[in-house]
C-alpha cells in the first residue's frame, strides 16, 4: 500500500483534555497531529499558539506535529513553533510578504516546510520554490473552521499539483485539509493526495479507531 498519512486536526479535539485526546487519537492509529493555528486576523477565528504545542511535547506526545499557520504576519512566529517542538510548518502563500524567506526560515529552524493554498489561491506561487518544499497543503474548504463541506473543485487542483510534483521528481508530500471523510477519502487519494487532515470526521465519533480503520480500508482499495 502507498505511504498514506492520516493527520487528525486537533481543532475538533477536546481542548479541556487535549493531551489525553491526542494520546487517544494516536493510539487509534493516527500518524501525525495536525495543529491549526488561527489568529482572528488572517482567518476569522482564534485557536492556540506555540505554548500549547510545547505543552503537548511536555505531556509526552512524540508523534510528528504538523503546524498549519493561518496567521499574518508569518515569519515572527516560526521560531517559536520550531522551539515548541513542531515537526512541519506550513503557511499560506498570500499571508507571507516573502514566501522564499519564510520557507528558508522554517528549514533553518530544522522543520519541514510547506506552502498552503486556499481554494481560490492560484498555484503560480509554486513556480520558483519547488526545491524548498517538503510538502504542499491544498485547502479543500476556506480556512477558519472545522466541519465544513469538501469543495469538489479541489480535486482538479489536486491533480494539477500532483502532476507538478511528479514532474519535479522531488519527494514532496501532498496534503489535503477540509471536509475529508470516510466516504470521499479514496477519491481524494486517487486525485493525488497522500496526507489527509480530518478533524470533525474523527473527533466527532466516539471511537476514533473505527473511523481511522475505515479510512485506511478505503485507501487500500
Ligand atoms: C480549517 C482547518 C482544518 C479543519 C479541518 O481551517 O485548517 O484543519 O480543522 O476540519 P474538518 O476535517 O472538520 O473539515
Ligand atoms: Zn488545518
TrEMBL record:
It catalyses: D-ribulose 5-phosphate = D-xylulose 5-phosphate. A divalent metal cation binds at residues 34, 36, 68, 177. Substrate binds at residues 9, 68, 144-147, 177-179, 199-200. GO terms for cellular component: cytoplasm. SUPFAM superfamilies: Ribulose-phoshate binding barrel (SSF51366). InterPro entries: Aldolase_TIM, Ribul_P_3_epim, Ribul_P_3_epim-like, RibuloseP-bd_barrel. Pathway: Carbohydrate degradation. Its cofactor is Fe(2+); Zn(2+); Co(2+); a divalent metal cation. Its EC number is 5.1.3.1. One of its GO terms (molecular function) is metal ion binding. GO terms for biological process: pentose catabolic process; pentose-phosphate shunt. Binds 1 divalent metal cation per subunit. The active site is at 36 (proton acceptor), 177 (proton donor). Keywords: Carbohydrate metabolism, Cobalt, Isomerase, Manganese, Metal-binding, Zinc. Belongs to the ribulose-phosphate 3-epimerase family. PANTHER family: RIBULOSE-5-PHOSPHATE-3-EPIMERASE. Catalyzes the reversible epimerization of D-ribulose 5-phosphate to D-xylulose 5-phosphate. HAMAP family: RPE. NCBIfam families: PRK05581.1-4, rpe. This is Ribulose-phosphate 3-epimerase. It comes from Veronia pacifica. The lineage of its organism: Bacteria, Pseudomonadati, Pseudomonadota, Gammaproteobacteria, Vibrionales. The gene is rpe.
